[in-house]
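Journal club side-thread
Mid-discussion, someone asked how the predicted structure for our own chain would compare to the paper's figures. Pasting it here so we can look after the session.
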Amino acid sequence: MTPDYKNKNVAVLGAGRSGKAAALLLAEQGAKVTLLDSAPEEKLTGLEPLRARGIYLLCGPLAEEDPTVYDLGVYSPGIDPELALAKNFSRKNIPTIGELELGFQFARVPVIGITGTNGKTTTTELIAQMLNACGQRTVACGNIGKPLVEAARENDDLVVLTVEVSSFQLETIREFHPEISVWLNFAPDHLDRYPSVREYREAKLRIFENQTASDTAVVNVAEHLPALSPRVITFSAWTNDGDFSLADGWILFRQQPVLQLAQAQLRGPHNAENMMAALAVGRARGLSFEAMVPPLCAYRAQLHRLEFIRAISGVEYVNDSKATNLDALEKALLSATKPIVLIAGGKDKGFAFDSIAPLVARKVRRAILIGEIAASVARDWREATECELAPSLSGAVERAQAVAQDGETVLFSPGTSSFDMFKSYADRGDQFRALVRGLPNPTP
């Protein structure tokens, strides 16, 4: 049953896209809404539609010290519980939910929830493209760009919602219940947010919390998950133990070939697993492989995901700025078929890089390191490959061109987040692309 928010005094924490969408949805339901953000008002945008709906805005210290005891607080995904804004709420014992939970309350169709440390966005888009092509109208939303609360306001013509789900969003669920859950993989990440890997993993595992025996969980067979209530479909590109497996360039379902990788636009075993997960979702929704394979093969990855930029003097330049953790960097290295000059580094997120040193030794001829973690990575890889530090991304690209040889790849795969030097991974990738396109192409 959809909650009744009429005349309820509700605060929404965070004035980003999801926070603004949550505030508008609540206002439409008759709630008295206050939107709070720690940033000064002049740094916020898109406020006029909110004011037109009677939504009150509190910014800066006024938001962090707001004494009001609300009926409910709604957290945007990026709100860290340790921030002053959130702690002000916890001190007052105000009930809270997240934007994901609020959106689910108003979703009038089933939900597919996709989580994992890496590959969430690609798999969410694969599933959405496949379902739409097969006549099952959906939209990719959640952590992917369009918030679930925004999609929930517009879902009259949809038959299912395809939702990318982050650990941050799962922290605050109550009833969130995907008809199909997808667990792609797990690796250490966000240790600047979580006290340990265990807490990060426990947050992600909540995706299964409300599922029942009538639901489906699509899981990587390599993961050691607790006993699950839903029926399980498994996949792996590395073993033949799953329902979906990989052999001789084919994705197999129970040892029968269903998709030839050479026909697809995506490359690498990690992308084979993403396509397996999409096929498993489609099978759970009653689709045939014959219908699913063409749209999956036609899918092209978003920018910043092993994106080929250009070749100069026989050297390929690849932008993998979306690699914001060590597992993503590892997958990029495993996908490479040529010797690598690697540009890596960025924000110190609390984990070491020594675990992939053996892989670096096999794949990377030279590492050029940037950001606040650069010196630490150089120490972790001192026995694996030759490392040098660059003061900026521009300097790293120039140095990479100077040392890269014909037949090699300059791979920009940072292995950590961007916020020490850039606005986002997309900003970081855009700058890398522009720098590479601006490099001179020596004439023979």
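Post-session note: The first strand starts at residue 9 and ends at 13.
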